[in-house]
Q: What sequence folds into this?
């Protein structure tokens, strides 16, 4: 979370940049992973070395972040966009802390993955959505139908065992291949979400209103 002074006595802009599929210890000093941007950011901030994720699953962990509650309290127990999910969204009456910022006069902006509730998206919680994945607005058919159709396409074009692949490229039977690390790779559209965020911040900077993204 980055805090930027806005110019008023008690308000500032807030930018939350949440990564996916990243080990927590990669942000610590002397880790062998080379991430110059993270390292430069860490040198100007605070690193919490004893912070732990409240759940090993994406959806309940993100819901816990945005509510300040454990899964046993907010009601999202596992990844909810699957057929055998235990719940579809947050318990009735559960509030996001971002709603308090909206009530205090902040503009709320969203880009990227939602993964908080299947039944509602960031727009339902007051966010101005600039780009979105894994949210209600992203669905054209049921998640299950789209998942099976994706698997059918992958199976039809599956990379044969023993096929060569480039550095950083992950080849898994049944999943298709993608490049897992590099500089300009964009296998899941992450860079598109970042570009949308940058453009939204440029527009927000022209208004005399604090923002939270």
A:
């Amino acid at each position: 979370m980055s805090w930027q002074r806005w110019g008023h006595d008690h308000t500032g802009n807030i930018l939350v940049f949440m990564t996916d599929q990243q080990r927590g210890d990669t942000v610590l000093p002397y880790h062998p992973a080379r991430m110059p941007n993270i390292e430069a950011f860490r040198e100007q901030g605070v690193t919490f070395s004893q912070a732990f994720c409240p759940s090993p699953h994406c959806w309940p962990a993100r819901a816990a972040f945005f509510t300040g509650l454990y899964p046993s309290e907010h009601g999202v127990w596992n990844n909810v966009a699957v057929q055998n999910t235990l719940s579809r969204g947050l318990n009735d009456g559960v509030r996001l802390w971002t709603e308090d910022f909206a009530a205090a006069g902040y503009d709320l902006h969203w880009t990227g993955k939602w993964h908080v509730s299947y039944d509602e998206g960031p727009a339902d919680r007051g966010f101005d959505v600039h780009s979105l994945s894994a949210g209600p607005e992203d669905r054209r058919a049921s998640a299950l139908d789209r998942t099976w159709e994706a698997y059918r396409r992958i199976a039809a074009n599956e990379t044969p065992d023993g096929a060569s692949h480039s550095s950083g490229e992950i080849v898994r039977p049944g999943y298709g291949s993608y490049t897992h690390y590099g500089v300009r790779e964009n296998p899941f559209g992450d860079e598109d979400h970042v570009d949308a965020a940058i453009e939204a911040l440029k527009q927000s900077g022209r208004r005399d209103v604090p923002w939270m993204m």
The CA atoms of residues 112 and 193 lie 5 Å apart. The first strand starts at residue 2 and ends at 5.
